[in-house]
Amino acid sequence: MSAPAESVEARSVHITPNNIEVVPRENVPGLLELKNFDYLVERRNSLRARYSFSIIFLIMNLSAWFVRDYAQKILPQIHYLKSCGIGGRDCFHTLGVLRVSLGCFIFFFVMFLTTLKTRKLYEARNGWHSRWWVVKFLLLVISMAVPFFFPSDVVQIYGELARVGAGIFLLLQLVSVIHFITWWNKYWTPDEERKQSCSIGLIMSTLFYIASICGIVLLYKLYTPRPSCTLNIFFITWTAILLIVMIIVSLHSKVNRGLLSSGIMASYIVFLCWCAIRSEPIMKKCNTKSQEQGNGDWANILSFLIAIFAIVLATFSTGIDSKSFQFRKDKAPQEDDIPYKYGFFHLIFSLGAMYFGMLFISWNLSNSAKKWSIDIGWASTWVRIVNEWFAATIYLWMLISPVVRQTRVMDHDEPVQGTDHSAIP
Question: Cα–Cα distance between 424 and 401 in angstroms, integer?
Fold first, then answer.
């Protein structure tokens, strides 16, 4: 046998089934590219679904407004429903808004239950979230119709629960806003490694503080025309004090967080103060520009539509910001991970349904709001002003909490001075 033949024979001895490397199907280049393409398509469908749900939520807001202001004249058929009472009065105005809000809550809460704990794009629940729109449309119609057959007592109980749900929504929205402010501050803060210039951050912080100061001045000019407007003077003055406190704390040597985040937060609480004063019932002496008049002029209509779109935008932005509410860091995202938490997204929208229900009835279950008005009344005023104070409190705690924790750690790390027993005879 020749040498080449021996060499071939020697190599052939080692070619056995146990020595063959089995390549998984997932690692085959063609299949891998196809799978990545499928994940890309699913991810796009998932991202587009967010806007579809937002449009549904906007339609529900407009439906609540329609039922409150115009349905009694346009939909006389509702009068024949036994649950709507005499003349259908329990299906219009305040109770009508609550029924629409309840229907919207049912739809998004069912979506929350059916998409909870979805992790991967290849799961069936991902397809339910991103597709099956015909089935979800039928679910929406059923969810909107069922509350109009509920007794009024059940709707009143939902109204009481909606107050709590709307309060939770405001709290979650506040956390999301503060998280955004923190991210923005880090984005514009100078980085020594990147040698980023601080001029942009300085300009931004200056603009925000100028806007805050101008806002305070305008609030005094527009809503405190007389010294007798003590409540408005108190609201505005306390807001100005909060601004000063935030500046002092931010610039303290132990905190040293700069002026950008406090400037953004200052503008935000001035905006909340303005919203609170705008929610006051019309008063000839102090708040003559309230939207409670409901005359349907262009200013009231425009402010009403802006308020509705603001509700939708706030709900959408909070719903996709699930990272702000994570108590632990997740692993590095993979290609087959969902782009956002579906369960959290639908939970926020279900709480948002309670929130817009409260806004359309001004947080008052026994009072019917006037046409083209939203969130007007003393209950609305105090909800907003408490929200402002709570926002400032959370932000100040966010500033000082690292210092407090560091102080506690240093106290625990101090060596305990004991007695030297070796010196004792």
Answer: 45
239 domain-assigned = no
- On the question of pLDDT at 15 being above 50, the answer is no
Q: Are 83 and 152 in contact (CB under 8 A)?
A: yes
Measured CA distances, 60 to 63, 350, 404 (Å): 5, 12, 45
Dihedral in degrees, nearest 10, Cα atoms 310, 316, 317, 318? 110
Residue 351, φ and ψ in degrees, nearest 5: -70, -35
Among 123, 114, 111, 113, residue whose Cα is nearest residue 56? 111
Residue 355 in tokens? 């929130």
**What SS3 state is found at 116?**
coil
Mean per-residue pLDDT, 126-147: 91
The answer to whether 260 touches 186, Cβ cutoff 8 Å, is no
With beta carbons less than 8 A apart as the criterion, state whether 189 and 201 touch: yes
Domain count, the chain: 1
DSSP for 275-293 reads HHHHTSPP-SSS-TT-GGG
* C-alpha atoms less than 13 angstroms from C-alpha of 158 in its C-beta half-sphere: 27
In-domain check, residue 162? yes
Which tops the pLDDT comparison, 230 or 84? Answer: 230
Task: Kindly compute the dihedral angle of the four CA atoms of residues 22, 24, 25, 31, in this order, to the nearest 10 degrees.
Answer: -110
Q: How far apart are CA 180 and CA 259, in angstroms?
A: 15
In a domain, 133, yes or no: yes
Decide if 67 contacts 100 (C-beta within 8 A): yes
For residue 156, the enclosing domain spans 39-173+340-364
Instruction: Establish if 148 belongs to a structural domain.
Output: yes
pLDDT per residue as tens digits for the range 85-99: 776 677 788 888 999
| Integer Cα distance of 318 and 309 in angstroms | 14
Q: How many CB atoms lie within 10 A of CB 388?
A: 24
Q: Across residues 283-310, what is the average pLDDT?
A: 64
CB 381 within 8 A of CB 279: yes
Alpha-carbon torsion 243, 244, 247, 248, what sign?
Answer: negative
> How much is the average pLDDT of 306-329?
74
Highest mean pLDDT among 214-218, 246-250, 288-292: 214-218
How far is it, in rounded angstroms, from Cα 62 to Cα 78?
18
